[in-house]
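Backbone description:
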Amino acid sequence: MWDRNQMAARAAMELEDGTYVNLGIGIPTLVPNFIPEGVTVTLQSENGMLGMGPFPIAGEEDADLINAGKQTITEVAETAYFDSATSFGMIRGGKIAMAILGAMEVAQNGDLANWMIPGKLVKGMGGAMDLVAGVGRVVVVMDHTNKHGVSKLIPACTLPLTGKGVVDRVITNLGVLDVVEGGLKIVELAEGVTEDELRSATEATIVD
């Protein structure tokens, strides 16, 4: 199966040249390290940054340059800075082509739950709700199961929703699945993973 870096590298293959893309916290923050050669994308952060580079080399961090997950990042030659109102104007106005996000649960109809677990400390939804409503395509990158081995791809979300019917594609450590009519469709299997293994780890309906 894929590790976190391999999942991020597979997600980077979803990037289209010349587009504006927002990356969520968690595994998606690794995507800039794997942007394919010849593909130019502009990464947007809802905390007010357009144009982000990869993570900085140890010892060269700039504490003033952070992404939405409070991690230090690097800027690029074309980086622009702005306030949150402008940032969310871009998102709500449909100017961002894709969001690559993490998730706690994804339902077979594309519902997304990625912002809170009831009873646990929550920092806030952040820009997730606006992102899934305003971008053209939503790709989720996450582990296929939780730490207890329970599927995170399920018939219906049990956690509070971030958005209804918003997910287009899911990339997990076991493979790639698309949200289609009637359930999820297997697009690709991770290295060393069989279709039977993926199916047995998935509670959601998988259609042929």
Notes: Residues 92 and 134 are 5 Å apart (CA to CA). The first helix runs from residue 4 to 12. The chain has a mean pLDDT of 93. The first strand starts at residue 20 and ends at 23.
